Structures are given as C-alpha cells and as structure tokens.
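Appendix C reproduces, verbatim, an entry submitted by the partner laboratory led by Prof. M.T., so that reviewers can inspect both the input and the predicted structure.
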Amino acid sequence: PDIDSYPLLVETLALVVGSQHPLAGEAAIGLQALNSESLILLSKAFATREQIDRYCNQHGIRPRVVMEANVIGALIEVVRRTTLSTLLPAAIARAHPELVAIELGPQRLQRTAVLMQRKGVYQSSAARAFIEVAKEVAVALGEGS
C-alpha cells in the first residue's frame, strides 16, 4: 500500500527464429509446437527465464533446451545463424530484420513493465527526468499505457 506504480508497457514474448528456420513463415503456433523445438534460452539467472519456465510448466510444455546463454546478443546470433529457436520479447525480433517473431497461442506469454516508487518520497530532478523518458519511450513503442 505504500508503493505507487505506473504501468509502462505490456511486452509479449514470442518464439523467435532465424529467417532460415522451417517455422519462419508462420505468424502463430500452438504451445504444443514448443515441445518439438530445440531451444537456446537465457540462463536461469535471468528473470525472463524464470517466467518462461513458469509459463511452460503451467501449460504442460516440456521444451528441449539444448543451449543456454548469459548474453542476449549471443543468443540472438545463435538463433540468426542456426535453426535453434528462442523465447524473447517480440520487439527484439522486430529490431533485427533477420529474425522472425512467431506468436504463441492460444494464451500469450506476456509481462508488464512498471515504474514503482515509495509513496510520498522526494523525487530528484534526475528521477523525474528518467520517469518522463521512460514514459515517452513506452508511448513511442506503441505499447504505452
């Protein structure tokens, strides 16, 4: 109750594949299709991986994780150059023309980015500037609240 929050954006995670991947022409796939994919995922040190694991467990999916990475750039390069796939925010794929984001369904894998601050605390000018920039970026992405 002593925290103010401001939702910035809702981010959808998707199956991300390279343009040479057999599924690259698909717009969406069912969750069960993940069972037959060879995946490279972020290591368990990342909150994104924890969310992916929880989502898969909730939906009875047992992905075949053949590789893990600690750097998103390395993960993207492996996906771009091989037929391995990954689960990442769809916006990352949109930022790389050689990657394709495939929607997962019927229930999407989503998360909300939120700015949080204790109620009634002093905001420095740097904090106010950061909040304004964060809100502007969220709106520019077309996903702002």
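The radius of gyration is 17 Å. Additional entries are available on request from the coordinating office.
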